Amino acid sequence: MNLKNRFTAKNENLRLIHTNPDLINTMSEKIISWLPEIPREYVVVCIGTDRSTGDALGPLTGTFFSEMKPKHMTVYGTLHEPVHATNLEGYVKLITEQHRNPYIIAIDACLGKSTSVGCIITGEGPLKPGAALNKPLPSIGDIHVTGVVNISGFMEYSILQNTRLSIVVEMAKKMSAVLEEIDKRLCYSRSFPATVTPPLTQSIADI
To answer: In this predicted structure, what is the pLDDT of residue 161?
Structure first.
């Protein structure tokens, strides 16, 4: 997990508290609006480790989403096979080799202000893992989704270790539900890897 300067903003971000009843629909619609016009192979990279409660947000999200058996997205980073600082470069190379021109959604945990704890934030642009520690790790993601799991400040890694598991699990469930909604809106064709289908209500209205 990167504690500061987590991502390079490309356009506006969307920030919602994880208990917001409209989060899944609102956030999935926003992310879909950022997807490329020409479809690509969609890859979800969930960064973090199960050795730290707060930093387990990524692996938990990856595990929950994998259990949903997505049809149009490939998932990297679960509790059993986490993607973290030690192996991130290897996974970046693997993804480049296994996927043609992949479009990556990067998932990670972060720390922030007390008023932001529990918020899920998404935006265009990559995450910068390791920036807080000045580690030369590659940026990753065309889109990022981060969850504020605790308060930033002194001894931040200790704070991560003492983060409540309940909020991390609840946030991971919401983030995986957002990904599932996006996956449902993707469909394959012979010509392109995947395309976005309109919401059911919109389809009916257009008839």
So the answer is: 72
